[in-house]
Amino acid sequence: MKIATWNVNSVRSRLERLIAFLGRHDPDIVCLQELKTTEENFPFDEIKAAGYHSAIFGQKTYNGVAILSKSEPSDVSRSMTDGAEDPQARLISADVAGVRIISGYFPNGGTVGSDKWEYKLDWMKRLGAYLEKHHKKSEALLLCGDTNIALDDKDVANPESWAETVLCHPEGRAALNDVIAWGLHDVFREKNPDGGLYSWWDYRMLGFPKNDGLRIDHILATSSLAKKCTAAVIDRDERKGSKPSDHAPVIAEFSL
DNA sequence: ATGGTTGCTTAGCAA
Length: 256
Known about the structure:
Blueprint (H helix, E strand, L loop, with lengths): L1 E6 L7 H11 L3 E5 L10 H6 L3 E5 L7 E5 L4 E5 L12 E6 L2 E7 L9 H20 L6 E6 L12 H4 L7 H12 L2 E3 H5 L8 E2 L11 E2 L2 E6 H4 L2 E6 L15 E5 L2
Parallel strand pairs: 1-2, 7-8
Antiparallel strand pairs: 1-14, 2-4, 3-4, 5-6, 6-7, 8-12, 9-12, 10-11, 13-14
This protein binds one DNA strand through loops.
């Protein structure tokens, strides 16, 4: 089973690239983030024609997440269903081929200390409670998405310039590590222990040409699946060329 | 350098 996670930064402006990506990699499942559109305007037909079902949780202008899959998803759940007052579409879950798939777009956090930063930390706390309430670590489960956190300085090309920012702050790292400690494994790290590989480069300040990147997109697997992971890569080429997303897709394969 | 680029929406926000 091959799964990809990709923050597309608008599914409509990235549709041509997305369809080409599906053809190039032939993934069984794709978790998308930052759709930036409502369900009404989601390109279901084009994605269906490429051979994929779409389970989506959309929102106008901002956020929005989806799970694309060759086999039909079931038991689709949108948001954390915890009664919190939260209008932001950032989490969707579904069963696909016997695996629980979660696509998450973690809050960026604005600047450390801001209201958005507090929301980011609280959102990760809620996610930990969501996993605890709805799942068991003995399940086959994949939490995929843009976490907006680089867990380690070896996932940051220029750690000194990103230190203490929302993507690298120790409190954010601790919050994501708390989620992971529930029973998840960073399969990309396990396959690429040396670091130095990135999934996001800022559009500004020549981020990609200078390779000023961070690995902030993750595929996190429960241990039964992590043991079966055979490969984990980043499609850095997808960041090249005309009209790329600012994120590159992360892809993992599992022998099920 | 509180900068810069992109997308949605059409002036300002979010990233």
